[in-house]
Task: structure prediction
Amino acid sequence: MLNQASDYSIYRQVVSQLMQGEEQLPSLPALTLDIRRALGDERVGLPALVRLIGRDPALSALLMKHACCALYRHAQAPRTLQEVIVLLGLAEVDRITMLHSIKSLFTLHSPAHKRLFVEVWQRLAFKAGTCAQLARLLGQVAPEHALLASLLSEVGTLAVLSAFKDEAAIPSSELYYKLCREYSKSLGVIVLKKWAVDEEYIGVIRQAGNWGFSTGHGLDLVDLINLALFHAIKQQNPQAELPPLVTLAAYRKLLPPLNGVSAEGELALLVEHQADIQAIAATLL
Result:
């Protein structure tokens, strides 16, 4: 394994190439772009959407999985892709299409990459599930919007891993997360600009992990992301150096009884809904 100084030297070179446009960053698949264009075109009817989405069996299965998950409470589960699309709505189908692309773009092929990717993706899924559940409980942001925003805020984390796809040496978890702390924000912004996503998601990347950041308004998307990130870090590493939850700007926007804190320094609200969080996260795995 390369020493840390060499790893950092190599990665700085990769980042420099990315900044200069010399390195190929992942692009959204052509089918994803076709589906998203169709979803935004009022002239495209439901049967045509069903046929188009049906060309991607993995996406179809993911849509069905989401329609049956804890975010959607309904008496009878949908049985066909058409029923799924009607239940979820076009905006949510668009979000899930993006979610599907995020995971598929960064799935790597060597066993060492896969092990690290699985570890990373499990953390991202827990964070996204936490963010969606918070949104559902607090009612300020649509849960589906919060879930996608949470995942998009970590695109740079996945891009860091993809930078090693041609290297014989795969970084240890410790070195990988150290690289993420240094480079994931800048890489995430580059990738999302390339994908031409809404500027709101890029703003989330810039403020994720900034515990003191506040827009000065009510609880918003960045607040949810930071509360979810705090709990995801704590869940992965209970000994992580984190500020007390009560000092976070996002926490200070919570009013009783929603701001109760457990003995472990977590939101009691989230502790009480762990089963729902895990159910949402399971739809991403």
Summary: The first helix runs from residue 4 to 19. Residues 211 and 248 are 5 Å apart (CA to CA). The radius of gyration is 19 Å. The chain has a mean pLDDT of 85.
